[in-house]
């Protein structure tokens, strides 16, 4: 008979199995990362069971003295990391940050302009996600497929015509900076609040390797704390506004607007990650972008169809590869074969694709491999491994041995306070 204890054991061994896949393999999903040993300690601390509703030193519960210090330090360092006068570090994810920001900035029925999911916008920017939850009237920007960014003139015209309450930018498929100079200017002309979802590129922005939206007309930037910003799962809301009433509106949209407990253990982890970022973030961001460009070039040299070759493949942590005809499902097939070889990726819709479950492409990110010390040489080796599986038709199980060998030399997590040279993959 299977007991509940057996079930709990099964959960623990599946957890270990998942950890082993990443420990022995290559994690290349662009939205993921690993956490540092100190962040891991914070996330596993007693704080996981505690509450601290309110803001530092203004709580509804007792017992928050330690956490007041943590959150105060986090706000102070967060403002430094993002060179901004305001940050909220409470929101529990990028999506929750978006829900809270949309709640603070618009009323049901207001208009919003955003990037469509087909062009790489996130589901929270769509009717099926946070935009729909707030019941906003969505208008999507015309898109320039060749440059992988909004069509500047047509998008500016749309903004002038629609006169949205919020002009939202940023996306999940995010190769190049948004042309904010022109588009934020158009939004300001019609009195819109400019919002930018930097979930994917937050670490690159903070590290000075991508555009700085807050210096280019953006009022509110949201994001996840666990993609190129290498913290635990969570969210941030950052603003260029000095207006305290506006800042209070953003804070209260998180608590009590969207969260009661905002996962104090994750907040503590985010604060440790902010301290580590102040120390190592710039070089981490530089190395990520250098590796992504090198990986794009190496994949192209192997014979893959890498998008945006004329723009140097990427200016972020991502590259996009097409593996067959539009809507053919070739991306899904490629992702399955790669997983058999121990390379973890995700299928992704590329320009022209209309079916999210059978797209032609892959979206690949190098931020996790960079974090365990891989550089340009390793990017070239990885491109060869992809080629052996996907172009040369080698048995993925035999390639897996070489994946394991490559990864065995890259276990120690860098760009963090890691005095004991601990592995990023404890399971
Ligand atoms: C642009 C964008 N915004 C928001 C999110 C959601 O972030 P989270 O998973 O932290 O809710 C994602 C997720 O990948 C994203 O790509």
Task: Give the cofactors and ligands.
Answer: pyridoxal-5'-phosphate
Fraction in helix: 40-55%
Largest sheet: 7 strands, mixed
Note the overall shape: globular
Number of strands: 17
Output mean pLDDT.
97
Write the layout of secondary structure elements.
Layout: H1 4-24, E1 26-27, H2 37-43, E2 54-55, E3 58-59, H3 65-81, E4 86-88, H4 94-105, E5 111-114, H5 130-133, E6 137-140, E7 143-144, E8 149-150, H6 152-162, E9 166-169, H7 180-189, E10 193-197, H8 202-206, E11 220-224, E12 235-239, H9 244-254, H10 264-302, E13 305-306, E14 318-322, H11 330-340, E15 343-344, E16 346-348, E17 361-365, H12 367-371, H13 376-390, H14 396-408
Parallel strand pairs: 1-15, 5-6, 5-9, 9-10, 10-11
Antiparallel strand pairs: 2-3, 4-12, 7-8, 11-12, 13-14, 14-17, 16-17
The structure holds pyridoxal-5'-phosphate.
Please give a structural write-up.
This protein is α/β, with parallel strands linked by helices and 427 residues long. The protein has a domain at 39-274: Aspartate Aminotransferase, domain 2, CATH 3.40.640. It has 14 helices and 17 strands. The strands form 5 sheets. The protein has a 7-stranded mixed sheet with strand order 4-12-11-10-9-5-6, sandwiched between helices. A 4-stranded antiparallel sheet has the order 13-14-17-16. Strands 1-15 form a two-stranded parallel sheet. Helix 6 (152-162) packs parallel to helix 7 and helix 10 packs across helix 13 (376-390). The longest helix is centred in the middle third of the chain and has 39 residues, at 264-302. The site of pyridoxal-5'-phosphate (PLP) has 14 residues, from helix 4. Residues 31, 93-95, 122, 124, 170-172, 197, 199-200, 224, 235 line the site of pyridoxal-5'-phosphate.
